[in-house]
Amino acid sequence: MCMKTKKLGRGAKISLPLLFLLLAALLVAALSGVFGAPGGESAGEASSDAAVSEALPAAADPEGVLILWAIDVGQGDGLLLRMPTGEHVLVDSGVNTDKNAVPDFLREKGVEEIEYAVFTHPHADHIGAAAEVVRGFRVKNVYMPDVAHTSKTYLDLLDALEADESVSVRRAVAGESFSIGEVTFDILSPIEDKYSDLNLYSAVLRVTYREKRFLLMGDAEQPNETALLASGESLRADLLKVGHHGSSTSSSADFLRAVRPDCALISCGEGNSYGHPEQVVLDRLEAIGAAVYRTDRDGTIRAVCDGKTIEITTERTS
Fold first, then answer.
1. Residue 258's domain spans which residues?
2. Across residues 42-68, what is the average pLDDT?
3. pTM for the complete prediction?
């Protein structure tokens, strides 16, 4: 089950002990006249939101748990995962029209080293800042599918990887896996060697931590879903990163029934020209009882998993 909690500011939540401390501090300050202000403004007119934002920094992320952020990158994908042991995994890097969004978010979260970067496929809305990430952070391993593209964004990524010989580049293909502590990443797709569309090369990741699973679909489409259903792999997941930004080219009814996620994350841009997410996909998610979170409405989405539960918080409240 995915639980949603209210957000204060960008990622901060008030605990009761901290609230009591804040109230006590305000009372002491009021009695001592600290809030006396020019023009006769009283302490009672001070904004409680301002007091909270000062007391609760945005970096108040829990430790010792698995955290996934679906970064609000607009019409694209950018996922950051922090392991219970502190390492980081990046899955895609946002759009090429805003190459600062993902690097800035990584720096905000104190990321200096990336254990694995998975670039699901070469479209610019998924590898938009990939070259900047490789150049600006210590990236140890990169997974990407074995398919070339002629875009400048893709060629910039190749140049960045060629310039840094310390990065181990591996082919993202079904059957590959890696682990960091108790967290296991299985690549379930692409299964075939050749496809007619770049989206079909998308690396699909199953992330397992104790009793919980995330399924991250990239831009995988219904032909990939059909192959996954036939593969015999266990597709059941508690959290689904919906394929292709909520396009009807993905998320078939049969596939969603096999996954049966408690919560579904959709990364898409506000007012995008593609109509993502499409209503038919939202209807299918509703039919299986999944709670839906969208970056176009909710901003950056954070999922905190202790191995038994998943807690969802959002940058904005819908």
1. 66-314
2. 53
3. 0.84
